[in-house]
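Postdoc handover notes: sequence design on the structure in folder B. Input tokens:
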């Protein structure tokens, strides 16, 4: 807590003692569609992420961080509630997260925190360009937010309690970062600790709108492609990858600037800093075209996850192979913040693991309840530190040993020599489903249960004027 104590020394010993017992600030930064493998510290031979690489050296690095349902709205709902998509009904994009759900912002606010949210929300379900009034903000007070926006060069947002549509200046990630830096400065010496969430839109497509100076860092002819990219997808991948990496490197700059601001304000030691993403990006792997996710392969479900908290964890980074899943994030952050974990939360508190307590492997549950991309059936699966196992409604689908097959090119399902392993993993999957009361039925069961009406293509309509849908609203 050196930075915090230093900031209060002029006020005398009493102030210093008060600072020593102050709860940590929380800065939670997350990208959109940034897959786990696309950082320098994770071994990507192409992408330039010097700031994240340095942060990884100072952080707990969860090498098997998993997106429970790899698409925008379901991830965000699971993040804020600590609950699974089949429990909340939040398994589709563009649906409304009910006020009845107890969320991260409310919990931290009730614990005496200032709360802030900057960037993409995608939990309101009232239209992607609509104003979100205070009563639908789930406990966040400082507010510069768009429901959903990926026009990075003309990116709208709403500020505070004004329904006036505003636009970030220039490339939105840079402007959002500047705003987040100012928020940190304004609250560095405040009476209360703060929770600030910054939700970036990049590197989600469109990739062509990455700034030219960043795209120019990645000439297509110099890019090395992974071996699980099919020959017929390579042309499309090489068209998209310079912009994808360009967005990543630009966002890396943003992370570096926020880290520097925390340093300048003396807040490093007593701030929990998290960097992660909502889900990954297939980018041609497994013969899945660029710009898609939702599928259960690692490029889609695995995300970066760095957590730095020097006052408790020290300043040396370390890697953790034990999986962390989306619903685990909130209870883990609450425990590290010294805040009671609500009984409604389903995720597991992994703060002991972060502090270095020994823990064996665990299974992170993954799911797609009602997928809305072509040729994808609903599935449930688990990702352990070593294995991926996925089942469709009527049969096993995928089994990979990720230690010997990191690009998941050898499906072991049905192989006699792996029968015992498959049986064990199937039992693990069943156990995880039982914990959350999910019987894994066909998608229509869940659509009927929660009262959703889909349009052609299998998704919730988000055109202006479309009916607002959320768990149980149409019943």
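Designed sequence:
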């Amino acid at each position: 807590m050196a930075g915090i104590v230093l900031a209060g020394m002029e006020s005398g010993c009493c102030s210093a003692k008060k600072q020593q017992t102050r709860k940590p600030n929380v800065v939670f930064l997350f990208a959109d569609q940034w897959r786990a493998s696309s950082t320098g510290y994770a071994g990507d031979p192409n992408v330039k992420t010097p700031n994240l690489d340095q942060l990884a050296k100072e952080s707990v690095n969860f090498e098997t961080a998993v997106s429970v349902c790899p698409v925008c709205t379901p991830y965000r709902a699971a993040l804020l509630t600590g609950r699974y998509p089949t429990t909340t009904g939040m398994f589709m994009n563009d649906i409304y997260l009910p006020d009845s759900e107890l969320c991260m912002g409310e919990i931290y606010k009730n614990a005496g925190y200032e709360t802030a949210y900057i960037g993409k929300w995608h939990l309101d379900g009232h239209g992607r360009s609509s104003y979100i009034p205070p009563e639908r903000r789930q406990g966040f007070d400082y507010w510069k937010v768009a429901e959903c926006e990926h026009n990075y060069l003309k990116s709208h947002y709403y500020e505070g309690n004004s329904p006036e549509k505003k636009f970030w200046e220039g490339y939105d990630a840079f402007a959002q970062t500047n705003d987040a830096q100012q928020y940190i400065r304004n609250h560095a010496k405040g009476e209360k600790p703060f929770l600030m969430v910054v939700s970036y839109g990049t590197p989600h497509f469109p990739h062509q709108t990455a700034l030219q100076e960043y795209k120019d860092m990645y000439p297509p002819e110099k890019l090395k492609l992974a071996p699980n990219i099919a020959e017929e997808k390579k042309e499309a991948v090489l068209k998209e990858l310079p912009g994808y990496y360009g967005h990543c490197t630009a966002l890396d700059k943003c992370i570096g600037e926020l880290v520097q601001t925390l340093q300048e304000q003396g807040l490093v030691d007593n701030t929990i800093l998290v960097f992660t993403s909502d889900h990954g990006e297939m980018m041609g792997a497994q013969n899945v075209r660029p710009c898609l996710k939702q599928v259960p392969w690692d490029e889609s479900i695995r995300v970066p996850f760095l957590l730095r908290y020097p006052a408790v964890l020290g300043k040396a980074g370390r890697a953790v192979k034990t999986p962390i899943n989306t619903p685990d994030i909130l209870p883990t952050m609450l425990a590290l913040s010294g805040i009671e974990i609500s009984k409604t939360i389903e995720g597991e508190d992994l703060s002991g693991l972060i502090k270095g307590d020994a823990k064996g492997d665990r299974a992170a549950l993954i799911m797609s309840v009602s997928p809305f991309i072509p040729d994808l059936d609903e599935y449930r699966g688990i990702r352990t530190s070593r294995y991926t196992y996925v089942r469709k409604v009527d049969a096993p689908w995928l089994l990979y040993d990720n230690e010997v097959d990191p690009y998941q090119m050898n499906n072991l399902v049905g192989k006699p020599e792996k029968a015992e392993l498959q049986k064990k993993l199937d039992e693990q999957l069943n156990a995880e489903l039982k914990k959350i009361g999910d019987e894994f039925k066909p998608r229509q069961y869940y659509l009927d249960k929660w009262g959703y009406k889909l349009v052609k293509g299998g998704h919730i309509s988000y055109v202006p004027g479309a009916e607002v849908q959320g768990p149980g609203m149409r019943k």
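Context for whoever picks this up: The chain has two domains: 23-357, 365-443. Don't rerun without checking with the PI first.
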